[in-house]
Amino acid sequence: MKYSRLTKEQFEELHQEFINFLATQSITADEWANLKVNKPELAETELDVFSDLIWEGVLNKAEYLEHISAQHMYLFKLGEDNMQAIVLNVKNDMDITTNEGYNWLREHLMDDSVEFFQADKAYSEDKNLDKFKMIEQGAVITKGDLFKYFNKLIS
């Protein structure tokens, strides 16, 4: 397995897609029920393969990632050959994950207590795995509104 197995909730959301996946493997509903009971290791493999296919599709489509913590904001634009990063550091105790902290940040963007950095980062040989590792570390896929905003601000 390349990524991680989908959660029970994710499998439930993707129930029809999983049925279609099994159909492409020529596995009927009865055969699937039989597999789960009599060959659980094969059923587990099918779950893993399906999970990887879903992750691969999601990661191929992802264009932006964000990872926001109390004093840091990491914003990434996922390009074809590399990722562009904008990093924002708050050098005081303000927690920008709260409404109060985020409002403070908006009003004090140009203060000395707020630092901006920009960088490009090359992917490894497997860019989707790079993206997945960032998601495992807490990044979320977004539409890129924050990246675009800060990119305009600091360009």
UniProtKB/TrEMBL annotation:
It comes from the Bacteria. This is Histidyl-tRNA synthetase.
